[in-house]
Amino acid sequence: MLSVESQVLTRQRDLLAGRSLHFAGVVRDSLPAQLSAQSAVSLSSFYFDYLAQNRTLDNAQFGQPSDWQADLLIYYWGKNKQEVRFELLQLLSLAPVGQRALIVGENRAGVRSVESLLAPFGSIQKIDSARRCGLYHFTLERVPEFSAEEHWRCYAPASLEGLRVCALPGVFSAGELDAGTALLLSTLQSAVKGRVLDVGCGAGVIGAYIKQKNPAIELLQSDIHAMAIASSQRTLAENGLHGEVVASDVFSQIEGKFNLIISNPPFHDGIDTAYAASERLIAQSKAHLYSGGELRLVANAFLPYPDMLARAFGRVEVLAQSSKFKVYRAFA
Description:
The protein is of the alpha/beta class. The protein is 27% helix and 29% strand. It contains eleven helices and 18 strands. A seven-stranded mixed beta sheet has the order 3-2-1-4-5-7-6. Strands 12-11-10-13-16-18-17 form a seven-stranded mixed beta sheet, sandwiched between helices. Strand 17 and strand 18 (325-331) form a beta hairpin. Helix 10 packs parallel to helix 11 (305-313). The radius of gyration is 21 Å and the shape is elongated. The chain starts with a helix and ends with a strand. The mean pLDDT is 94.
């Protein structure tokens, strides 16, 4: 089924027909693959899970493209304005004057702000409105200057005992240590040994903190988001720590077993609340743990994780809690 954004785009088939197309942004469906039957289509996505689920498109890149060419850029607006700004300006910095683009997004995601974002670089106008979405046509007249380095943000809160965290826009814990992660880290007082997997690592705070305290561990961090992977890699490097960071949709690219699987799992998908990834994390963790190994995670207190953990492990403990969060532990 096509997303509402794609449904709006398909109303403009005269603009799409006979042109080479480059898709980017938060694409969530098979429209690029469908259009590739009659047009030259390429795609770049920060989201590994989307690419893994849509393998039929040959010309697809994971992460920030070094170059791209197409008659028409089709950009799907996302909920995180900083991430949108980073990606859209980076794409346009690689484009020639005269480049045309279609930007589509849901009104509740703030797509209207595309006008103020892109007005300094060319002419933009709204050409359609349907399904509670806006569709904008843009023509590039002044190529923006773009430096990824200017978008990095680093911080070192006292609670992390000297650990320096670095992140790109749109990455979880990009600007400050969130309360849930802080509560989870407060439970890591005893020594950690063996293989450790930090799932949904974001800026890399959890894995880097454990590695700093327990240098002998073998650390693996994973995320679906390209900018999270880059951020975790830089956080490790900034602190002189060694660990591997991989793109994986929960356990899709993870091999072997672990002594500890730890996570502050996401429960937002786009603008809506969803926790399918967390359900898979809980359901599949036991198979990826050594006997006696532990799954430890933090979550909003209202989420139904205790029942999920009890079904998967039989017994679950609450290690810490606040008014908003709980830290759970279960053993294989």
